[in-house]
Amino acid sequence: MIEVTRLNDKTLIINAELVETIEATPNTIITTTTGKKIIVKEMVEEVVDLVIKYKRKITSI
Length: 61
Fold this sequence. Notes:
Number of helices: 1
Order of helices and strands: EEEEEH
Strand content: 35-45%
Distance between the termini: 15 Å
Helix content: 25-40%
């Protein structure tokens, strides 16, 4: 799970395993494998780093 921030400053926890695409348009839009689109304040690179950190954490257990 990764923590991101919606445009209204509310924190949201999403399942990193469901992230399909991340795009900047100029807002960052995360699209999940279920088709849901989530607009967040974090830059694309930050979301990618969060997913990588999550993946490293679960594989080191």
